[in-house]
Amino acid sequence: MECSSSEELKQLVKEAKKQTKFGKVADYIPALKKSSPHDLSVAIYYPDGICISAGDIEQKITLQSISKVLTLALALMDCGEECVFNKVGYEPTGDPYNSIIKLETSHAKPLNPMINAGALAVTHLIKGASVKERLGRIIEFIRELAGDKEISYSAEVAQSEFETSHLNRSLCYFMKQDGIIEEDVEDLLELYTKQCAIEMNCLDLARIGLIFAMDGRDSVTGKAIMPVHVARLCKTFMVTCGMYNASGEFAVRVGIPAKSGVSGGIMGSVPNRFGIGIFGPALDKRGNSIGGIRLLEMMSERYKLSIF
Ligand code: DON
């Protein structure tokens, strides 16, 4: 798929890049430290298959938390709403994405599927006889979302996170104590870190964002990839919790369903209009791409994107 470079987007990227000096690349996953803090790129994918971009959109990034939206969709298709919301709640936390504090007061049931605890509980629900089979199903689903593209994960990033995931291990043990998680914690962490290390470029991210924007339908091929209610539910969580404890401010300033990851990726879905993929590894203090957020603010203003 070719993506034509857009002068207008280039100008916006140039302006938004000024923010990158105020951010920092994630370092708690050692392998992510290698990213260049001043990179910033964007792709927009339209329902008719046209794509426009600015910056180096071929660069591969790991999905990290963006994968949480995709496993939520798969878990909803695997076991249904009642089963998923038996394990996680519907509410934003106002806390950082890796916080453990609310698990104690919520009887270990994570408040929503976008924080780490909630995503671990959702990944726990992905069906399959082994970690390998479950990972294969996640990758296969993402391959379908990305338009039949070959998808794989970075073994280096997965291993680097697996070895240093002490906080995520604690979240799992806390949830295991109260029966939210029933499997072996090391197995779940292996699956989760590999899921977070799945790689793609901005263009693929924009294409997947478009599928959510079009209520689960691949508008390029006409194929329904997920039921409408699943796509809508995922978009709702993107609005209320997709930017963690910055989701309220993001809703005011940008106003679109979006999901960030600590690798610096952001996937955006502008309902019935287009999908957005952004990569800018310098993060703000809440773990969202600092240049990416600025870019989305400018795009929202310029193209009247807010759904509110
Ligand atoms: O579990 C973690 O900490 C990472 N694999 C994902 C966290 C993340 O991407 C938060 N995003 N802004």
UniProtKB/TrEMBL annotation:
One of its GO terms (molecular function) is glutaminase activity. Its EC number is 3.5.1.2. Transmembrane segments: none annotated. One of its GO terms (biological process) is glutamate biosynthetic process. Substrate binds at residues 65, 116, 161, 168, 192, 244, 262. Keywords: Acetylation, Hydrolase. The keyword Acetylation applies. It comes from the Bacteria. It catalyses: L-glutamine + H2O = L-glutamate + NH4(+). Homotetramer. Belongs to the glutaminase family. This is Glutaminase. The gene is glsA.
